[in-house]
Amino acid sequence: MNKELVKDPLNIIICGVGGQGNILATELLASALVEQGFYTTVGETYGASQRGGSVMSHVRISSTAEYGVLIPLGEADIIVSFEPTDTLRVARDYANKGTLIITESRPNYPLAVLSGEAVYPAMEDIEAELKKLGGKVKIIEATRLAVEAGNSQATNILLMGALTALPQVPLTTEDYDRVMEQRFKGTALELNRKVFKIGYEQM
Fold it and tell me: Beta strands 54-62 and 100-104: pairing type?
């Protein structure tokens, strides 16, 4: 193993809405961790089953044992989210004062907001509540950065780059790159490497 865990188990939640690449991001992360010899369990919970419903993946990492797949309430060490209000929803249940939170800044408006039945909260209000619920909060314009890099579908990979940059995460960029090489080829691989590096540099 390249790094030792600063906490065992290390509990990570990756969340967003259907269609944002949440599951792929989780699979890549878990594969990289397993290749480094960590016990890694993954559990997933779904909201509405169709595209646009909430999707939350629990990733539990240990050097010594295989833990249950679901993180207990209030015990997430890191939350990575692809949608701001989803970040807030998950943080209310799973964050504590030591939780590190990384969130995309771009809203994915639910139907009630689009139809005028509800109002989407201001980003500064979301950030203020996240800071009350957790520890450090990092907001990244992930979609904008991915689009500028030429890969609008790679917001998930960009946020995995940011996650990998955290000292608590026991992976190097090389570890993650090996897993991407197994999944992507050619231009797709190069574009994903590019956005992963951009995400890493945001931290």
Answer: unpaired
152 is a domain residue: yes
Single pTM value for the model: 0.94
Return the SS3 of 81. Answer: strand
- Rounded to 10 degrees, the C-alpha dihedral 18/23/29/33 comes to 140
Whichever domain contains 71, its CATH number is 3.40.920.10
- Domain-embedded: residue 5: no
Per-residue pLDDT of the chain (203 residues), as tens digits, is 457 899 999 999 999 887 788 889 999 999 999 999 999 999 988 765 455 578 899 999 999 999 999 999 999 999 999 999 999 999 999 999 999 999 999 999 888 899 999 999 999 999 999 999 999 999 999 999 999 999 888 999 999 999 999 999 999 999 999 999 999 999 999 999 999 999 999 99
17, part of any domain:
yes
Helix axes 22-35, 173-183, angle to 10 degrees: 120
Give the residue numbers spanning the domain of 190. Answer: 10-201
Two tokens, residue 51: 């595209």
In the β-sheet with 39-46, what is the strand arrangement from edge to edge? 39-46, 54-62, 10-17, 78-81, 100-104, 137-140
Question: Is 3 domain-assigned?
Answer: no
Domain count along the chain: 1
